Amino acid sequence: MTTTLADPLKLPCGATLPNRIGKGAMTEGLATPNGVPTQELERLYGIWSDGGAGMLLSGNIQIDRDHLERPGNVVIDGPADDIMMAALTSWAKAATRNGNHFWAQISHAGRQTQTNVNKHPKAPSAVKTSLPGGQFGEPVALTTDEIKELVDRFALAARTCKAAGFTGAQIHSAHGYLLSSFLSPIANVREDEYGGSLQNRARFLLETVAAMRAEVGPEFPISVKLNSADFQKGGFAFEDSLQVLQWLEEASVDLVEISGGTYEQPALMGAETEDSGSSKNMAPSTKAREAYFVDFAKAMQEAVNIPLMVTGGFRSRTAMEQALESGAADLIGLGRPMCIMTDAPNQLLEGLDALPRYEDNLQLIPNWLGFLKRFQMVKAMDSFAAIFWFYEQLDQIGHTGTTLDNLGVFKALLAVEGRNKKIMAARAQ
Which of 259, 242, 274 has the alpha carbon at shortest distance from 314? Predict the structure, then answer.
């Protein structure tokens, strides 16, 4: 039978998503300085709910306020008080008002915590990120007791979100954040039970899945976001990812979202990945940035039965339907297009052929200065500036319900940086 975007998806736990389109997790930066959801978050997710996706993923909900992915993250790092529960409940109500699922992406930034949040973040080992510019500080290795405490915090956050009305949870174990860095033999050089072999490096993740399942029960969807590869020599490779995926299936995970890269090698931003042996046989469609990780996911589907979500690069309805039909994906994740076209799922379901590639026209460094992008720091700055353009659009939707038509990249960069400074100043008071 032909699988279409409109078809429901039944998960192993018994829950059913109403269609095959999911909004990928995108950081919002719209929480209070103390990490409490706001009316702006409610407005943003209510609009996305009306947009027709079968499932919405939240941005990073952090389990430690000293390890934020960015200022303005929602934080659940202990038992929720009445104010937090009311805010979470109101957010979940708005985000599910169209009958869709709303899942909490639960995370810990680890060594990719910015220095304005924490100059010495906790990590698997004292291995600093290789990015220049001093954006990330010198990490400190977690103790075994601290790891076990963080396992409990992941589970507590999931239980809290379930009580507030979220319909599922995702464990963020990709993009170089804490659980992802434990999987990497570059970032994790421990010599105890959480380091060395792949089985040991995956222990933290698998213990987190088990603890979360014990807290939320068998019928609540649990997902994991997992790198197909880090795209770094000597890093977490595709073969490692495949083995971890098989362990996750055995651990009763209901959906795995396939992604890739870290801040040091940002494949998720569309960067080249020639350093990875796994990238040499990528299909032309992948190299053209239409569904970055489809080829990895298709290979994974040959080894497991667990449903897979693929996010990154999808723009044409034809490519989405081909991914579903070929079995490479069970759920199509959309990210950047929904920062502008908030009803993109409905439009695709109604027959729209393709979504715009807004990012193709976004650059901080003009073409005549393109030679500067040979320098890693400049290239990274240009990439992050373009991402900030999307951040600013999300902020506008949250505050006004609409986007900005003539927003420049430099203006967006200044706006986001200014807001971050205000949030951090408020945190310090």
Answer: 259
Query: 380, 385, 363, 372: which is closest to 133 by C-alpha?
Result: 380
Element (H, E) at 383: helix 376-400
Integer Cα distance of 321 and 353 in angstroms: 11
Q: Are strands 55-62 and 21-23 parallel, antiparallel or unpaired?
A: parallel
Look at 43-57, 204-218, 312-326, 357-371 and tell me which has the smallest mean pLDDT. Answer: 357-371
The candidate with the shortest Cα–Cα distance to 163, out of 209, 223, 75, 104, is: 104
Distances (CA, A) of 274 to 23, 180, 230, 270, 287: 28, 21, 12, 12, 11
Find the helix or strand (DSSP H, E) in which 321 lies: helix 317-326
Q: In angstroms, how far is the first alpha carbon of the chain from the final one?
A: 59
The total of other beta-carbon atoms located within 10 Å of residue 381's CB is: 17
Maximum Cα interatomic distance, the chain, rounded to a whole number of Å = 59
* Cα separation, 242 vs 240, whole angstroms: 5
DSSP 296: H
Instruction: Find, among 385, 377, 426, the residue nearest to 408 by Cα.
Output: 385
Q: Please tell me the distance from the alpha carbon of residue 247 to that of residue 297, in angstroms, as a whole number.
A: 16
CA 189 to CA 187: how far, in whole Å? 6
Q: What is the pLDDT of residues 227-282, one digit of tens each?
A: 876 566 666 778 888 899 999 999 999 999 987 544 444 444 333 222 223 333 43
**131, 184 contact by CB (below 8 A):** no
Residue 386's nearest CA partner among 412, 366, 348, 368 is 412
Query: Which of helix, strand or coil describes residue 209?
Result: helix
